[in-house]
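hey so u asked for the seq, here:
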Amino acid sequence: MPHPITRRTLLRVGGATVVVAGVPALSTAALAAAVVPADLVVYGATSAGIVAAVQARRMGRTAVVLEPGTHLGGLTTGGLGMTDSGTQSAIKGIAGEFYRRVHAKYAGTPVTPTSPARFTFEPHVARAVFDDLLAESGVPVYYGTRLSAVTMAGNRITEIVADNGQVFRGPMFVDASYEGDLMHRAGVTWTVGRESNSSYGETINGVQLRNGHQFNFPVDPYVVAGSPASGLLPGISAAPVAPNGTGDGLIQAYNYRMCLTQAANRIPFPRPAGYDATDYELLLRYVQAGWTGPFFTTHGVGNGKTDSNNNGAFSTDFIGANYAYPTASYAARDSLAADHSAYQQGLMWFLANDSRLPASIRSATGSWGLAPDEFTGTGGWPPQLYVREARRMVSAYVMTERNCRGQETVTDPVGLASYTMDSHNCQRVVVGGRVRNEGDVQIGVPAPYSISYRSIVPARGQCANLFVPVCLAASHIAYGSIRMEPVFMILAQSAATAALQAIDSGAAVQDVNYPALRTRLLADGQLLVWPPPVAGEVILDSRAGSGVTRAGTWLSSTSIGGYYGPDYEHDDNTAKGVNRMRFTPTLPSAGTYAVYLRWTAHENRASNVPVDIVHSGGITTRTVDQRSAGGQWVSLGSYPFTAGTAGSLLIRTENTTGYVVADATRFVAA
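ran it, structure tokens below
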């Protein structure tokens, strides 16, 4: 008789290892079977893959996770311990639970729905939290299961065949990998690289020669300084720089997120095999030109350890070395990852040891080393390459810069993102005989924004039973904001929920009943819109149709960010006293309501905009200054209202000095 599975069992299946945490219903024989069935088959043991499987189990269905490598948890357990979280209060569902569990691990307390969240952590703590989630849910993880074939019946995946011969079958699949390999094998349309600004009506996509992480001192790029005929130093492109906004096939640089420490037992930075100081000649020249650092970040994550990342013009990002990675074979990717490791280890060794550098730089770098109790299987070096972007799906709805800026909203939200539009440099070029970095963009978003369900499923007519919550449909620059681990977890939970609803209804993923999906997502604690809904709250956007009436002429605009809905309107600074806009909410019950108004601020706005609040006690007029306080809900006070449509808010333009903006109003029951 096969032995029942204990809390954590490891099996060898061909070339794969199966790690099972608490799956009493499965036996070792079942796990080693040539064909493994599950309701949800998840490819990629990233944070997203784990959450998708856990959600499926919590909904009473079976799930398996296939990991082509040997690492569990992706970047969340791979060194990215300082979470790029954006607005932390926008992270809910299992993602929010993960960060509450991290806090509970450190505090030694049980996790509850009201536990505090902790967004900085050591890699091994994140791994322990994922192990707990898998154990409690009973999810088997198959390591070393690289795709050999994906079998299709029409536009549906029927099975995945691993390179060890094992077969995984199910009605629904999730591609939670950073590379989008399953999506590709299933015939889904995807892209790699940067779109032009004109592709989606954006302003910061494509080539971006800017000042972020840039050389602050002039540095000669040629092997023999001043001699173009001598050739370029390593890592510098000879191609001319295209105009800003031009599309190309380049992607932002990768690196490893190191976990460093200054503890006495730290592991000194190793000198990698094949080390060549020429690879860092450009950095040496930069130092000789006057740069003293920093050369990498040292953000603390707990117990004296860091999440260390790229910082500055020449740092841990291996710029230009990853172009082949998204579409490469497994073996080629392994080679590229090894190249990145050798480059970054060589960089750290160079900074700590090269005698041509000032002693202050060498001693400062040498005071750090690898944490000996992290990544013990790889000598303290992170096992997970930071794949910042690879393939991106092209689907019925592509998230763009306009979504990030709040200029366009979606009708089918499945989660929120809120981090800065963040692209690391994509190439190193020569401009005017000096080296420059190109591609860095770091522009904030005004508020959390919703991500469309259509952006995580293939276009209609393509694969009907696949979800893609990591390599989702987004432009290069929008992906730079969305590509954060908490967001991947949020989207993966929503994907798993939709997958099981698709199974129950027999629908293609493109035809899932969105209202039913929304109801279940909200019941499971997901947050879909911002600001979070408040009981008794009514919001009216200027484009709401019903409830909004206008007099005169109002012009649409999106030129100043921070507005609610698809745009805002303004009076063009003309027809004063003629242009008016009234917002009439349908209030669910009588009582006192706090009234808020929203606008976009600029120095050309009017400072004396009259606003009439019509309530059950009469009319109260307030004056607002639209030169400031833009992009937020500004309180106009609390007033008594009857139920229904008797109350209203009127924006007037009489005697105003400057442009008057009408964007949105908000009524919140006390």
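The radius of gyration is 27 Å. The chain has a mean pLDDT of 94.
lmk if thats what u needed
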